[in-house]
Amino acid sequence: MSTFVKVIVIGAGNRGKNYAEFATINPVRMQVVGVADPRTFAQKNLQKRHQIPDENTFSDWRQVADREKFADAVFICTPDRLHRDPAVALAKKGYHILLEKPMAVTEEECTEIVETCITSGVMLMVCHVLRYDPLISKIKELIDHGAVGDVMHIQHLEPVGFYHFAHSFVRGNWRNEAQSSFALLAKSCHDLDLIHHWTGGRRCIKISSFGSLNHFRKENKPVGAADRCLDCLVEKTCPYSACKIYLDRVKQGHVGWPVSVICSSSVPDIESVTEALRNGPYGRCVYECDNNVCSNQVVNIEFEGGLTVAFSMVAFTEEICQRKTSIYGSKGELTYDGNRIRVFDFLTKKTTLHSSESSAPESFAMAGHGNADYHLVDAFISAVASADPSLIHSGPEETLASHRLVFLAERARLENRVVFLVLPCFTYFSM
Ligand SMILES: NC(=O)c1ccc[n+]([C@@H]2O[C@H](COP(=O)([O-])OP(=O)(O)OC[C@H]3O[C@@H](n4cnc5c(N)ncnc54)[C@H](O)[C@@H]3O)[C@@H](O)[C@H]2O)c1
């Protein structure tokens, strides 16, 4: 294989378009040679941006699977329930796969993807972007170098963000489990993956979880509120008003996320945003949607050796996805606040601060996840170019193991019990 990696983007939405930008910045390392998306606007935009020939543009991933293989790799960035089928079919065609998270929406489907990639001899990298964030990578490096001694307890918070939650999980694509997946899988498979990684892949012994959909329910609709924010008399007093989240932003010239998402077939402007709020899902009152996913959930885990974990996912926060972590060890304490890592050493009573340098271009950092998206694509393209899967930090087996933790936690929540696991691997019994 040449060092020049040819990629087909399957699903040219928010994520697909963003990852494809790597080719614009690094044209000698990656080229986008094909695109599949049923949305003409998205497909044509990507085609134009990357000068993709007409014969390599498709309205469905199946048309790519029906063709002779014409690239090295595919970026699968389709909606959650559309991961398994393209991943399995395209792995069988011999494409290396960059697959958006969650891998798939059931444990069986995830297992099938992993097994197919292994038997087909193709590389699989799941987009656990945080694994590629230089500062977050530093946490693992510090743990491995004994900065806190033996890890005893991990406390981890994912603050989803009040308007982010309203956008994605009340009005948007991830609001309803039957159409996407449960909130812990959709939002926090990243977090359980990090936790699993920080434990060094230790075996989970017990897991419990509680959570529900709070607040964004019909019974909490304020008196006098309309079904659409554009018609609402009490909109001014509502922090979740679509007028505030979208219309005020576009009036200030902001056309990126989340505004870009609601105008799926045009460039956002005041007119198209108003039209989307008038008729589309994003103009609905947050108390009148068909949402059912949890707004807050906790997961408690005991790993082998007595290491305990407390994880929280909360919708009602100022910060958007800026994780907070504390790792307590036998020799010290590590805290991460999204900007820096602080390590306190019990013996010397000294505090050390760590920050990180990133070589990601500014334009990529603007697209989301800080600079992690850039480093993620960089790792995948390097792995494919050099045929070296060790450059992939979120490969098949490890990702499957961390996704299993998510399925187990959700099972514990739904069945209202502690799930116990016995040797050698995931065999369940209940108490
Ligand atoms: N890694 C992360 O942190 C992260 C962040 C956000 C979203 N995601 C995940 O990325 C995936 C995509 O999310 P998004 O925000 O880009 O959504 P999106 O809706 O913007 O993009 C999905 C695209 O897939 C296209 N599509 C649908 N059916 C198709 C088919 N049959 N063939 C080809 N394309 C098809 C849609 O038309 C759409 O353009 C989801 O699974 C989501 O959960 C991951």
TrEMBL record:
SUPFAM superfamilies: Glyceraldehyde-3-phosphate dehydrogenase-like, C-terminal domain, NAD(P)-binding Rossmann-fold domains. InterPro entries: Gfo/Idh/MocA-like_OxRdtase_N, Gfo/Idh/MocA_Oxidoreductases, NAD(P)-bd_dom_sf. Gene3D superfamilies: Dihydrodipicolinate Reductase, domain 2, NAD(P)-binding Rossmann-like Domain. One of its GO terms (molecular function) is nucleotide binding. Pfam families: GFO_IDH_MocA (PF01408). Residues 6-127 form the Gfo/Idh/MocA-like oxidoreductase N-terminal domain. This is Gfo/Idh/MocA-like oxidoreductase N-terminal domain-containing protein. It comes from Denticeps clupeoides (denticle herring).
